[in-house]
Amino acid sequence: MSPFVDRHIGPDAHQQQQMLERIGHASLDSLMHAAVPERIRATTGLELPAPASEAQATAQLRVLAERNNPGTSMIGLGYHPTLTPAVVRRNVLEDPSWYTAYTPYQPEISQGRLEALLNFQTMVADLTGLPTANASLLDEGTAAAEAMTLVRRAARGRDLRPIVLDARLLPQTLDVVRTRAEALGIDLLEVDLGVDDVPDDVAGAIVAYPAADGAVTDPTRVIESVRAAGGLTVVVSDPLALVLLRSPGSLGADVVVGSSQRFGVPMFYGGPHAGFMAVRSGLERHLPGRLVGVSVDSAGRPAYRLALQTREQHIRREKATSNICTAQVLLAVAASMYAVYHGADGLRRIAEHVHRSAATLAAGLVHGGVQVTHEAFFDTVVAAVPGEAEGVVRRARAAGIHLRLVDADHVGISTSELTTLPHLQAVWRAFELDTAVPQEVRDHLPTALRRDDAILTHPVFSEHRSETQMLRYLRTLSDRDYALDRGMIPLGSCTMKLNATAEMEPISWPGFADLHPFVPAEDAAGMIELVETLEGWLAEVTGYAAVSVQPNAGSQGELAGLLAIGAWHRSNGDDQRDVCLIPSSAHGTNAASAIMAGMRVVIVTANEQGEVDLDDLRRLCEEHRDSLAAIMVTYPSTHGVYEEGIGELCDVVHAAGGQVYVDGANLNALLGHASPGTFGGDVSHLNLHKTFCIPHGGGGPGVGPVAVAEHLVPFLPSHPLHPIAERREGIGAISAAPYGSAGILPIPFAYVSMMGAQGLTDATSVAVLSANYVAARLREAFPVLYTGANGLVAHECILDLRGLTKATGVSVDDVAKRLIDYGFHAPTMSFPVAGTLMVEPTESEDLGELDRFCDAMLAIRAEIDQVAAGEFPEGDNPLVHAPHAARELLDWQHAYPIGTGVFPSGSTQDKYWPPVGRIDQAYGDRNLTCSCPPIEAFA
């Protein structure tokens, strides 16, 4: 076994034995034999390569990276070379205090990344000219698709009218929008909005500004026509272009979407990148995804938190307007810090350099007799060379430059902040032209569209010019947060475990980071081999026939799997099969994804043990026998239990003609012990940011591959620009890039490579051991709500606080906030059962940390007992006032001693101090502010 396994798994052999004794088992094998139902238990081991050492895995990845040929990319199409400031790369993208944090659901200990996200929202709002922007979306293509559904929701009774789609959008954006529209039954009219009029009686339009071919045309005509029809206009734009071009908001746009990739985020062979969406006033409550707002804490001081419909699908389920439950926080932070680093003047210099380079390129082409197809452009020039395009692209590639082959007669060239005069001269040589620099180079931005208003005027974008200031600002923000580099994050269903440095290092290598997603396949040979190898490994560990890594979040994987099921039914002539059964305990994204896939949701009840009620399932399968499409079931269940009836559930659904979708959110409890593809599943999505160690990044990036049985393989996601030709036609694109967030796939590749079959199996065993150990230590103080066979839980346990709350008034919120004073991030609150805490310790926490958590929980129970006994007043006790910020020491106002409040675990020099007190959530929604507040607010 590789030494890495022992470093990944927290408890050593001696600690494991102690834990086993506590729960009454002699060995890990005995525990797993008792926990996992016999019917689904694996009878053979996983077939994976022998585990590699860290050095061996790194060397293997180095070989793959060196097989890629990033060259100098001038392909464009939404992906551009950019320079990540070294201080941002090292202190954000490569810093575990940023990349190991979780979504800021405990805002008191997330103030750093919330401020960074507020900077991002302010940056986007300024550039787009619209007042409210969200905290990022998954990529530009899916942002445009989300905007399409926003238009439909906001159409006020006109939602059945078609939506106009600009044929000049990026090809991947067009395909993603088409995929979503077909599933939702939205009629699209594809029109070249650069020249053609908007058809009558439409619900809205999605228009490019600039277009994929580089053309810059005024979208005002489109906006006014759509408004006259009572619809909304979505503008898809490039934020760097908007530094020089008039903002879409000033031209009348209702919604603006795009990608912030070129703000310092590497191309990463397609992702991860932070998409964005901004809306005009009145549309704030239609925004999908996450929105950071400003509220106040217990002292009345400004404090940040997530606002409005954050993770709304867990509340509204099948009535949710989006299935997005994640974002691209780490990349949004990097993009926002690029703007903080450069400021308005720096961004303007970069944008002017990009445009000047494109204008110089065009002048040289025209001087040499080559026609340039558009007079107005920002960074992209399309040259007409009848019958010669392939030769031009081939000669440029030989010189180390990637151009875009538009068709046999046209070549596309895009400039970037890294474009130099030698690059332009190499391009001219590829056209077989003189390389002398033209004497006259003129501006190609339309005068009427030249931006003349100020951008990025908030002080944060001008205060950090020096390296010293920037470094200290990043450190200040990271110190305000709680991430895995500080201690345990026992969030149930989220699997916050070790993201080893050896797994993380390769993502910054140029061979991976600087690769454009649309280079010829031979120039991405190493990356394609990595992806195909990883997809094969994931198929092996799940028991499925094939995997696609294109979905760039778990929600996208759910949608891809359901679309595959729907397409398979239609291929069999069963167009009427549209009912999706979903257990009442399921993740909220399940129901939202089913609706987005065009299915009707029917809820299956749970029995008293929290398991799927098989009698109700049989009744519903019979009732919907002719229309049943699928069931979505999480396994182990969302209640943290290996349900004994999973095999029978699969049999019942299959007998009624349905397919079984096994949500892979809890795969960390299965690897090596059971495979969904072998115990009855037809399709699953996996969360590589959970089981396979991609870090959560403060709320993204994530990867949600879809795995399918043999009969569903033809219905995996396709992509119009896929490097493999046979994968360009199919059900359509789910994400903007062929392989989704390919840039972070070296992480799970390294993880699987170093763990090997036995290591993955042991990781699952220890994760289950740790959960049962925590349950055993805490069950007398906090009842464990659900258990499976032999009184065991799976990889997580639900602690029931409802009785304590009823008796004492102390809520799960109080316990969660009090845990901060003890130096912990709280478990998951009130999901899947209100009034409970769901704890998932993972395999990576050693016994010392597990005991520290259990000791804290038991101490909090003692404090609750003191409230019940009247020793602490109900309205003035350490629980209701938690967490305690350091400034309270200056003016202590509580009936209990200072030490009790701020040092419940005893005085320590390593104590984590929350930067704010408890945040008033309702105040922030009543007084919605979603951009950087003035400095005076913090006085």
Your description of this structure?
The mean pLDDT is 94. The chain has three domains: 73-491, Aspartate Aminotransferase, domain 2; 520-744, Type I PLP-dependent aspartate aminotransferase-like (Major domain) (Aspartate Aminotransferase, domain 2, 3-Layer(aba) Sandwich), CATH 3.40.640; 757-926, Aspartate Aminotransferase, domain 1, CATH 3.90.1150. It contains 28 helices and 26 strands. A seven-stranded mixed β-sheet has the order 2-8-7-6-5-3-4, with helices on both faces. Strands 16-22-21-20-19-17-18 form a seven-stranded mixed β-sheet, sandwiched between helices. Strands 11-12-15-14 form a four-stranded antiparallel β-sheet, with helices on one face. Helix 4 crosses helix 18. With 939 residues, it is of the alpha/beta class. It is globular and about 85 Å long.
Key phrases:
single chain, 939 residues, alpha/beta, Aspartate Aminotransferase, domain 2, Aspartate Aminotransferase, domain 1, 7-stranded mixed beta sheet, 26 strands, 36% helix
Reading side by side through the largest sheet, how are the strands ordered? 2-8-7-6-5-3-4
Per CATH, the superfamily of the largest domain is: Type I PLP-dependent aspartate aminotransferase-like (Major domain)
CATH architecture classification name of the largest domain: 3-Layer(aba) Sandwich
Class per helix and strand makeup:
alpha/beta
Q: How many distinct helices?
A: 28
Level-1 CATH class name of the largest domain: Alpha Beta
Question: What profile does the largest beta sheet have?
Answer: 7 strands, mixed
Radius of gyration: 27 Å
Pfam families: GcvP2_C, GDC-P
Keywords: Oxidoreductase, Pyridoxal phosphate
Domain Glycine dehydrogenase C-terminal: 763-884
Domain Glycine cleavage system P-protein N-terminal: 6-431, 435-717
